[in-house]
Each structure stands twice: as C-alpha cells, then as structure tokens.
Design a protein that fits this description.
Layout lengths: L1 E2 L14 E6 L4 E2 L5 E2 L6 H12 L3 E6 L10 E5 L3 H11 L4 E4 L6 E3 L17 E3 L3 H7 L6 E8 L3 H12 L3 E6 L9 E2 L1 E5 L2 E4 L3 E2 H16 L1
Parallel strand pairs: 1-14, 2-5, 2-7, 5-6, 7-10, 10-11
Antiparallel strand pairs: 3-4, 8-9, 11-13, 12-15, 13-14
Amino acid sequence: MAERERPAQRSVSLQGKHILITAGPTHEPIDPVRVIANRSSGRQGFAMAGAAAGAGARVTLIAGPVALETPPGVDRIDVETAEQMADAVMTSLPADAAILVAAVADWRVEPSPTKLKKGSGPPQLKFTPTRDVLAELGASDRRPRLLIGFAAETEKVIDHAVAKRQAKRADWIVANDVSGDVMGGHRNRVHLVTAEGVEDWPETTKDEVARLLVALIAEALD
C-alpha cells in the first residue's frame, strides 16, 4: 500500500462537469422527538463541495441535518431521512461524478405518531434497512461516469472498504478509521481504494483531503 504525497499546486478544472455530493448524517424518526442518528458533522462532504465548485464544477450538495454554511457556488438540497436523501440523489441525475460522503443511517423504524413514554417500558422497535444509495447508483442505467463512496469503519478498515467497492459497484471507496474523533473533527486520514489497489494518505485537514480528491476526480473525468 502506497502513501500518496500531496501534489504540487496546479490548476484543476472541472469546468462543464456536474458533481453530485452527499454530506452529513441522516435522522430516522422514532417518534416526534427522537431520532436514530450518528455523529457525522458533514464537514468532509461540505469541503468536497467547496473544492469542486472552486474547480469550476456545477455542484449539487444534498445535505442531512448539519449546522454548516453552504460553500460559495454550490446548489444545496436539505434532507432529513435516508429515503429523502436517496430520492434527492436520483432526482439530481444525471451527473458526471457522484461522491457519496454522507453517513446515511443503515436502519429505520416505523415512527410512533406520539411520544413514547418512559413509564411504558423499553419500546419494541422493528428495524428495517434504509435504501442503499451507493448500490442503487452502481446498478443504475443512469450511473455517473465516476462513482465514489465513503466508508467509515472502526476495524479492518481496508478489508471492509475493498469489499464495499466490489459489492456496491463503485469506482473508488474513500475509507477512514472513525474509532477516534474523526466524526465531528476537522482532520482526517483516509485510504483510497480503487481497482488498481489501495493508497494510504497522510493525516491532514478535511479541506486538504477534499482538494486532493478533487484533483484526482478532474484527472479521471478529463
């Protein structure tokens, strides 16, 4: 596994390209006041959107519930649930590249119309899988030319990412270890998994990860 060095500053252009990006968590309602959620801040996805727009792309950013400002030049669609995010992705096609950074909830429940009361005891929740947007895009006849997924793992990071790329029919998977404070933090250390192998990148800011990825995306779409 090789470690990629930071590239020299050079002009990167995505002029004329439509880049579709998802970011942040999803919230799956349990009742009117409670949700299934995760710690994703949305910072990496928003950094990707800003870097792609800065390179001249038309960027559609589909954002879960986050408290972040929209990067300049980015068209933002706010959603809450995995179902809403999947619908927004499909509606936003076609795109030259889709970068699915969002930490979408894997499970949802049929929400109660009223608040579940503590005195009634532990609720009996029936979990069902949410829609798998990456897999849907991988199998779609409207599949973007470049399909990139993110994999947040706490163990066997590379193994899980390699398996995910193959199972979802993605071109690249960007994997990282979230057993620390990555989710919600400002820095990231990622591994780029492609058909050619695995690259280990040095820890850096999420903005720098975004700039490097956008440069590679521009090369791939050129």
